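Could someone model adenosine-5'-monophosphate-propyl ester with this protein?
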Amino acid sequence: MSESTLVPPPPAFAASAHVSSRAAYEALYRRSVEDPAGFWAEQAARLAWHRPFDAVCDADARPGEIAWFHGGRLNVSYNCVDRHAAVTPDRPAILWARNEPGEYETITFRELQERVGRFANVLRAHGVRKGDRVCIYLPMIPEIAYAMLACARIGAVHSVVFAGFSADALRERILDADCAVVITADEGLRGPKRVPLKSVVDEAVANLDGVRSVLVARRTGADINMKPGRDRWLADELARQRATCPIEWVDSEDPLFVLYTSGSTGKPKGVLHTTGGYLVYAATTHHYVFDARPGDIHFCAADAGWITGHSYILYGPLANGVTTVMFESIPTYPDAGRYWQVVDDLRATIVYTAPTALRALLREGDEPVRKYRRDSIRVLGSVGEPINPDVWRWYHDVVGDGRCPVVDTWWQTETGGILIAPLPGAIACKPGSATLPFFGVVPVLVDDDGKVVEGNDVAGNLCLAGSWPGQARTIYGDHARFLANYFARFPGYYFTGDGCRRDADGYYWITGRVDDVLNVAGHRLGTAEIESALIGHGAVVEAAVVGFPHPLKGQGICAYVITRPEFDAWNREELAGALKEQVRKAISPIATPDRILLVRGLPKTRSGKIMRRILRRIAAGDFDPAGFGDTSTLAEPAVVDDIVALARG
Ligand code: PRX
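Reply:
Sure, complex below.
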């Protein structure tokens, strides 16, 4: 696919889209960057404000001090639930697609209001007050939505931890955010697998005196351990509470949630989002990027435990009064037609998923897709990693029958919502490019020396000038780290950590992370985290982890490990297996290295810095020394030959 091949919006779609031409996009975009206060004040009218804001944005004064809609008071739960329950009580708010095919449950806005109210009263009864952090470790069951909205209702701050994280990882996050209440389920279901969530929680909170209450939803009815005085069945607690729960009106800048994500150094960081700006941004991007409207059935197949789920399963669609689908299962259960079965059964109009899922489905061919009608779909979205042009084509031609625009959306946990994406009725696409910035977003490419790269047909480090309402405000408990991570490398800009090309037509192409962060099957992982997990095993002296191109996962994980001499007698495979297990235990199965190479040494400079670019080359199967770059500063050049010999093995 040549990058100049343009795929224009389907004319029938464009005709009735919110933004229906490139010229209309440009006019609105210009307005949004020339008069951001005016533009965002208008967008803020999507929400109901208890008290109007005094100022739209104060973000320019000091780097990293960001505030939007200052002085305004509102409540996210009121905006996502109550105001719709008042007008469209019988409209489905959530359509829950259970793990088993063909099993669905509908939760209307009226029912959602009752359940969120009851849940919020349970939290209050367990001592949760405004500003307190609540840890949510739940599978994709409606309780995860109730729990998040219940926190928002009383001004508590949720910290959702993806239910695939290990006990160690969960414990670390509970401690970091100082959560006194943890919400979980007996077990989760993921296709054919059962996930023992409660026992993971038991291990995570063992001897954590700060955790007062563990509330347990019953999903499978498995026999689990309940610790008296600490653990309670959620159903019993809910039965004790009435459904009416008064709203806690909060300041626009009061925190809404913390969500942990990986960086290039240190432990995962708790990205903090606040109330007004986040919700305005989620609602506005959902409206424009998915061309959303009342009556849509929005099917975002992500997990609510990631930012995609926060913004586009829950907050964006519900703020806009749009029905949202919660999908408990996996794309290949029981077969590769599962998504499309859900689409047909629920008449989904918007589908939003990750390239890694699409790659797996594409491999199974067209038949599982064509078996279903898919005629309800209007917009197809992609998120989380670069989408290969051939996968984009397949999504467009086969899944969408060439009838539906595909929106490749680039953004991050820290950005709160989509920053670069085509508006589906307005922008001609180039498969593989996220195309053009959303309203109010000003991408800037900066070279390694900090010089802004102007013009088109250029590449650089992707930064953003100015602010947008959905921008993260801090790292929980560590503002200095927030400033150092995002605002220090290129002063005056927010640095994304991504590399990017702006082509001759001004289209943006994300080229992947330029820091030591991996994107494995759409999951963001820090190499430093995996290395420290490996070092946690008694056999390991030193480890270096790099990514390599992987046909299904986008990136695979390769670990180079030096072990203690005492372990030389061990069977190599057994040792590698034990090390993989160690990573699973310390982080999650999603972080398991695909390859472990037990090496005698690592290529280091004379000053002791590991030359990762060499390790990346070797992991990619590229053994030609010409590709290793300047190796004259290597302390021990022979180390490289040893590793190559081993990798060729
Ligand atoms: O490298 C970019 C990649 O995912 C990173 C953000 O990961 P996370 O915070 O987990 O959020 C994922 C869901 C928004 C980015 O720095 N990324 C995300 N979307 C795309 C992408 N890379 C290329 N194209 C995308 N559409």
